[in-house]
Amino acid sequence: MSRNSAPLVVVMGVSGSGKTTVGRSLAQSLGVPYAEGDDFHPEANVAKMRSGQPLNDEDRRPWLEEIARWLADHADSGGVVTCSALKRRYRDRLSSAAPRVFFLHLDGSPELIAARLSARRGHFMPPELLRTQYADLEPLGEDEAGAAVPIDGTPEETAALAHAAVSPPAETGPPAPRDAE
Q1: Angle ∠(15,8,162) on CA atoms, nearest 5
Q2: How confident is the model at residue 87 (pLDDT cuts 50, 70, 90)?
Q3: How far apart are CA 123 and CA 15, in angstroms?
Q4: Which among 42, 57, 81 has a CA at the least distance from the CA of 136?
Q5: Could you give the percent of the chain with pLDDT greater than 70?
Q6: Residue 21 pLDDT more than 80?
Q7: DSSP states along 65-86
Q8: What is the C-alpha to C-alpha distance for residues 52 and 63, in angstroms, rounded to an integer?
Q9: For residue 128, what pLDDT is reported?
Q10: What is the distance between the alpha carbons of residues 57 and 181, in angstroms, rounded to a whole number?
Q11: 178-181 long-range contacts, Cβ below 8 Å, gap at least 24?
Q12: For a tag site, which of 28, 89, 93, 171 has the least CB within 10 Å?
């Protein structure tokens, strides 16, 4: 990521990992636009998931294309978008639209995520589909721009870790002179 441009980030992970909470917090702290990946799903996808059926690659194609378009539109100005981005080929599609994109993987155990999903109300993704998401999840490769952030702390702690992972280290300047002995 260039130091002269705002970050362009995909907050990724399985359903219930905290993408929305962390994504909103990150966008606010970075001063860049935020987009909710769920809003890019065609109604047919939402209906399919609501009925307990997992999406397949063909179902995800139009959704990924819309997110890729959003990333391309924000390539210069920066932004944060949520997207499960579970498979490497999905991330490759997104990074082909916006080569400087940074993937922030919110990483947690299936048990932690299942507990969060069972407590969540009003979302179309049923907890029963979590198993299929973990089956599809391909961790970030060493050659992918990104970082994994553990989600076992509070939302505020996770957001702080996310911000640290996305923000370039501060310039420290030349080392201070040593005192003469």
Answers
A1: 55
A2: very high
A3: 10
A4: 57
A5: 84
A6: yes
A7: HHHHHHHHHTTTT-EEEE----
A8: 18
A9: 66
A10: 67
A11: none
A12: 171
State how far the Cα of 146 lies from the Cα of 162, in Å rounded to an integer.
11
Residue 84 has which token pair? Answer: 């499960």
**What's the CA dihedral at 154, 156, 160, 163 to 10 degrees?**
120
Over residues 57-73, the mean pLDDT reads 93
CA-CA distance, 33 to 28, in Å (whole number)? 8
Mean pLDDT of 98-119: 88
**Strands of the 79-82 sheet, one edge to the other:** 34-35, 79-82, 8-12, 102-107, 146-150
Instruction: Specify the pLDDT at position 178.
Output: 40
Dihedral sign for Cα 141, 142, 145, 151, please.
Answer: positive
Q: How confident is the model at residue 175 (pLDDT cuts 50, 70, 90)?
A: very low
The Cα 16–Cα 117 span in angstroms is 6
Q: Are 22 and 162 in contact (CB under 8 A)?
A: yes
| Closest CA relative to residue 124, chosen from 67, 37, 45 | 45
| Helix (H), strand (E) counts: the chain | 7, 5
